[in-house]
UniProtKB/TrEMBL annotation:
Signal peptide: none annotated. Belongs to the cytochrome P450 family. CDD domains: CYP_unk. This is Cytochrome P450. GO terms for molecular function: heme binding; iron ion binding; monooxygenase activity; oxidoreductase activity, acting on paired donors, with incorporation or reduction of molecular oxygen. Residues 1-22 are annotated as: Disordered. The lineage of its organism: Bacteria, Bacillati, Actinomycetota, Actinomycetes, Catenulisporales. Gene3D superfamilies: Cytochrome P450.
Amino acid sequence: MTDPADPFAQQTRTADGPPPGCPAHAGAVSLTGLDFQQTPSELYRTMRREHGPVAPVLLDGGIPAWLVLGYTELSYVTSHDELFARDSRRWNQWENIPSDWPLLPYVGYQPSVLFAEGDEHRRRAGVITDALEGVDQFELANECLLIADDLIRGFAGSGQVELMSDYVHPLLMRAVVQMCGMPATGDDTRQLVDDLRISLDAAEGEDPVAGYNRVGERLRQLVKEKRMAPGPDVTSRMVMHPAGLSDEEIVQDLISVISAGEQPTSNWVCNTLRLLLTDERFAVNVSGGRLSVGEALNEVLWLDTPTQNFIGRWAVRDVQLGGRQIREGDCLVLGLAAANTDPQIWPEGHVGAENAAHLSFSNGEHRCPYPAPLLADVMARTAVETLLERLPDLVLSVEPEELVWRPSIWMRGLMELPVQFTPVVQ
């Protein structure tokens, strides 16, 4: 039951037809365009000023939804699964969704931990947690160090490198797939990671649905291999877990684990490197400055979080949220980046990096399962620190304003991060 005294949870009754404030009404903001890609923080401020903490928006193809901008409101949504649930089959817009809709990999129901609810979600999330807890953080850090050194040796003598393609993505790719029991290198692995990128954030001309299907096929093969010959890896621990997940359940949950481990963490690393190389607060002691690196990593989670927006939650019944009437079956997009910079929690516009109360790993029962954020931090910190220690005079090859952000409202990451340094003789 909802608490009638709670301003967010009051159940409402609406007349036939769309209620006032329905996202189909005039004024809904399209979640597309260069503003979202390059300067989303300014757009979030404008939306918050014009619409409040919950804004009516239009997804690809003009599909209506709500964007939750407020920190308090987002925390409430993610903490009350009985009102805002994860099973996307509740959506009241399915009849308007074409089969080739680009966001289908995000919202098309799959029998995965992402869409599970209640006891089933706890069972699935428990398997992932147990499998990840088997990862030794010191071994992971050492493995990342070895991978980083190997990659750096490949370009250290040139005096210049594009970090996204030649360092950050390969490092995280190799670390995550090794953790899951796949070969760290080879065309098969590279194709898997590229298909993950396509499924989550397709460029023009790429097919996200086809990319997602290819990922599933490769991971089905991996699960079969681990059932026959298990090893000391995440996939094997999921296969052998007493919860007895089926092969298809493991495949779907592995997609979630690998997707969350590689792409967002890569953007976290690169966004942090950009901050360290462009912000004078870190310039004095950036080389080997472990405290500065830690502060930069945390500040990025507040100000340039790798996952800007996440889709989503679906209203279980008619409710009110942030002064808006939400209809049963409405889709809510979690505005993680907007919530992290909510002026209600950062008075006078100051966003501090001294605490970890950000929502970058979401919140509530469906947040990133423990210890995934700790493992991501190990990989990100090792990647940043190793690079700065090996190449202490690293500087940008372009002016900071020339850096281009990826054309995505979902992920926050750079297209490229070109740098130069004094060549190192091998």
